[in-house]
Amino acid sequence: MDSDLISAPEPTSGMRGVAQAVFSPLTRAAIFLVATIKSGPDDLATTRSFCGDLAALIRAVEFRDIEAGLSCVMGFGSEAWDRLFGLPRPANLHVFREIRAGRRHAVSTPGDLLFHIRAKRMDLCFELATQIMARIGDAVSPVDEVHGFRYFDDRDLIGFVDGTENPRGEAAMGAVLINEEDAAFAGGSYVIVQKYLHDVAGWNSLSTEEQERIIGRTKLSDIELDDSIKPTSAHNALTTIVEDGKEIKILRDNMPFGRAGSGEFGTYFIGYSRSPRTIEQMLENMFVGRPPGNYDRLLDFSRAVTGNLFFVPSATFLEGVTEEPASTAQIAAMRMAVEPTPSTTRENDGSLGIGSLKGDIPHE
């Protein structure tokens, strides 16, 4: 088995999948590439054909430096899944739901395909992205490409350590990989991505103590503030999701990016989870507030400019894809089965309408 693959938990049905490289260790460099698929039938066939070839392409580029930890995760948006694969469909896949609350806006932007490329060296990331586009470039239109880097001791550009609370080992697998709740897609995951741009000058005008109260951790030592002094609007308070007394974790691999000459300073958020509802609840808490109005003050200095939800099928699924696309009848049936208004904005009641998380993620 390749080192960048991990076996999924075996569901009760006896099915077994091999996950994509969702659990790759943190790296020094990353490329996040989002594209839409063009409308022609040849474009769909090209994309489907590429799915089974991705693993071999990764191995070919990886061989230039085996120790550099090159990996790539491929995800599919809701509409792309319909066009490419038909039925069955991942149970919780839908278009990213935008959120509007006052001046805060979690936007929903176009995106059919996500490539999350990671390595210790940017040149390997760049080479793999180049080879991917050489294969499918005529069939897709890139809509966003971000080159991320590790900043000092795993800090973001606002100076705080990012990803401290990531689960590890078996806990990470339980938080991220689908199991018996959607057995046809065991070994898969959901991933939400957002590109945030920061008002660094405004942020740096705050005192360190003010910044720490917004984030909920100390800046130098990365220690969580005591609940007695931490505001309920702190970033890490609002992004903590608890059900039945147990915190529901996600796996983040956020990366800083920027262009100093253009005054662009940002963080690319990427979060993998077993159900998208976990991250959706986090975003609702941040943008709307918990309770409504008690929002994440970090959003006074950070603005989301993209937003996408993708499904990451298992590597086993990708290797079994053929060139034959979904039929028109399959697509029509699927569209009748999914919600009629996948992009939802709730300005008045502070709710995304996603309900409780109970029942969506079985707890071990």
Please summarize what this structure is.
The protein is of the alpha+beta class.
Give the SSE map.
Elements: E1 6-7, E2 18-19, E3 29-37, H1 41-62, E4 71-76, H2 78-85, E5 99-101, E6 104-106, E7 113-119, H3 122-136, E8 140-149, H4 169-176, E9 189-198, H5 200-204, H6 208-215, H7 235-238, E10 242-243, E11 246-247, E12 251-252, E13 255-259, E14 264-273, H8 276-287, E15 302-304, E16 308-312, H9 315-319, H10 328-337
Antiparallel strand pairs: 1-2, 3-7, 3-8, 4-7, 5-6, 9-14, 9-15, 9-16, 10-11, 12-14, 13-14
Helix pairs in contact: 1-3
Task: Describe the protein.
This protein has 364 residues and is α+β, with helices and mostly antiparallel strands. Helix content is 27%, strand content 22%. It contains 10 helices and 16 strands. The protein has helices spanning 41-62, 78-85, 122-136, 169-176, 200-204, 208-215, 235-238, 276-287, 315-319, 328-337; strands at residues 6-7, 18-19, 29-37, 71-76, 99-101, 104-106, 113-119, 140-149, 189-198, 242-243, 246-247, 251-252, 255-259, 264-273, 302-304, 308-312. The strands form 5 sheets. Strands 9, 12, 13, 14, 15 and 16 form a 6-stranded antiparallel β-sheet that branches. Strands 4-7-3-8 form a 4-stranded antiparallel β-sheet. A hairpin with a 2-residue loop joins strand 5 (99-101) and strand 6. It starts with 5 loop residues before the first strand and ends in a 27-residue tail after the last helix.
